[in-house]
Structures are given as C-alpha cells and as structure tokens.
Q: What sequence folds into this?
DNA sequence: TATGGCCTTGGAGTGCACTCCAAGCAAGCG
DNA sequence: CGCTTGCTTGGAGTGCACTCCAAGGCCATA
C-alpha cells in the first residue's frame, strides 16, 4: 500500500469529527511518543505491532526513528476498534496481509469484515442479555433490605 | 446473521425454568460431566473455578465426587455472563467472597453490580461505534470494484 | 563536553485464564 | 478378576497480548 493520499480530507463520510491533534497532510509525521499520547498504546506495543506485521510499514527519519503518518493513525484507530470486538491479533494481522497483497484479496477482505460484523452483533446481543440479568439483580438489591438482598443471590 | 432480538420470554422472576435440562429441586444433583455439557466449560475449568474461590462450595457424593445443584448452575450462568463482559476472574472471585461473607456486604455487592452495569453499557457503546466503522467499510467494499475496494482502506 | 531525553533493537519476562498431566481411586460389567 | 469409564488431586504447561530489559545511538541545551 503506501499509495499517495489523494482525498483532500477524511471527514468525508458521516461527518467524522475525529482527531483534533492531527496535523494536515504533508506535515503528518509523528514520533512514537506522540502516537503513544494519541492512541493510549505503549511504545512497546506499537513496536510489537510492527514486528508481528500488524502495521503497514512505518516511515523512518534520517536517523532511523519511526515517523507515523495520518494513515498510520487511521490504521491504529481501526485496529483499536477491532481489538474491542475481541478479534485476535492474529486475525488482524491476516487482514493487514490481505491489504498488503493488493486488490486481488478484495473478496477475502470483504468476507472477513462481514464475519467480524456478525461477531460484533452477537457480542452486542450477549451484552444486552447480560445487562438484563444485571438490571434484575440490581433491582432486587435496590428494593431489598439486607435479608432480601441475600435472597437476590438465589435467582439467576 | 443470527438475529437475536431480545426475547421477552426471559423475564423469569423466580419462576419459569429457563433450562430444559434441569431437574426439579431435591433431585438437582449433577456430575461434573453433566455440568460440562450444560455450560460448555471444561471439567478442568470447573475444578479450577472452585480452587480459586469462584464457586460457592460444591457438594460431594459419598465417594468424594462433585455434585452440582441448580444453585450452582445458576451461579455458573451468572459467571458466564460476567465473563462475557470482560470482567476479570479476580473481580468475580471478589463478588463471590462478598456473597459468602453474608448480608453485611450488601452495599459492596450493590456497588459492584452497578459498576459492572456501567462497564457493560460502555462496552455496548464501543461495539456500536465499531459496528458503524465496519458498516462503512463494508459498504465501500460492497459498492466497489477492486480499485475502489483498495480506496476503502484509506478511510477510517 | 557532558548531561538528559528520546529513540533503537532482540530477546526475555509477565499476567491472565485456562489446559493438561500423571497417578490413583471407585463403580459397573463380563 | 481384569477392564473400562469417570472422577479425584496438585502442580506444571500453554497461548495470548503485551511488557520490560539491557545496551546503545542521536542530538539539543548548559
């Protein structure tokens, strides 16, 4: 990848209101510690992501230090979101590989995204189910005196 | 895609048996392998839960084998749900300890449940955010031929 | 010139949540 | 009786996702 960006702004769809700390295209060259500050990841983790093939080739300064671009930050945003879904890092690496391999992996990538989407829907449903259980327990506790609170432990 | 609209049939307050495999009170004595079949956990994990204090004292047969009750199954259901929220096992152990300690931990338990509830809401929000990103990417892929699909990698 | 800060590397270590192992006991069956 | 099946135990091992370490390079300020 690393093809030159042509879109003048990424705030294209859905009015993405995203990242106040970003510099405009052409000046988007962030040190690792800046990226640490932006993403909440550690420098260790950023270097590790690169080692395992989860980052798409980060630029270097003339002294060999990493210089991250806005594109890299975008990618890390996506990775962060996928991480929240519980997707294993290995699967994200697989996706990164597909992107690196070029257009002919289009179908695979599409499938991977759709499978992930289904997983996310399932997880949301599970969490809503859990929420219902919690709410039921909480209302027992809220209504009850001590003795009844103990009873609350008996119901699912 | 496994549509799981929240079924209203789960509003079982101290009543309807939600688990077809359960036996009535008084005959609720399950071997570890039955519990494995019901919960999807392994026997190893069940024993490990007990060792770390996550199970509230499981009965034994005259030969020393574990005999789980409906209450134990209820507890495992709760544990399973909490596990789905990403709650660390150590926190669940803490909750189990509070229950064992009796009524005077009422307040602590209530707080723990409410904190968990807030976490779950946060997680659901995060997942919905992720879902929006995925949907956006997927629609790029769905609309696009190969060349455009490549472009889709450029947007957050 | 030296001090401190930020960065680099490969490899080793950590914490969590299991997961498995070896050795052994008890019950049921032919 | 031996065989199989199912269960028991403490402790060791596994896989994942980091997390840290030691040793050193670069460079701006004092």
A:
């Amino acid at each position: 990848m690393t093809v030159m960006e042509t879109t003048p702004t990424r705030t294209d769809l859905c009015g993405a209101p995203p990242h106040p700390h970003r510099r405009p295209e052409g000046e988007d060259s962030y040190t690792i510690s800046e990226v640490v500050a932006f993403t909440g990841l550690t420098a260790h983790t950023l270097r590790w992501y690169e080692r395992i093939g989860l980052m798409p080739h980060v630029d270097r300064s003339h002294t060999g230090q990493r210089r991250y671009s806005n594109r890299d930050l975008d990618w890390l945003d996506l990775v962060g979101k996928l991480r929240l879904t519980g997707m294993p890092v290995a699967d994200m690496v697989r996706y990164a590989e597909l992107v690196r391999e070029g257009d002919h992996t289009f179908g695979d990538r599409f499938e991977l995204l759709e499978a992930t989407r289904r997983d996310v829907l399932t997880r949301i449903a599970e969490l809503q189910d859990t929420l219902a259980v919690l709410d039921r327990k909480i209302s027992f506790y809220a209504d009850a005196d001590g003795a009844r609170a103990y009873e609350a432990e008996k119901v699912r």
Observations:
- Chain A touches chain B through 59 residues (CB under 8 Å).
- The CA atoms of residues 46 and 121 of chain A lie 29 Å apart.
- Residues 42, 44-45, 48, 63-65, 88-90 of chain A lie near DNA strand D (CB under 10 Å from a C1').
- The longest strand of chain A covers residues 59-60.
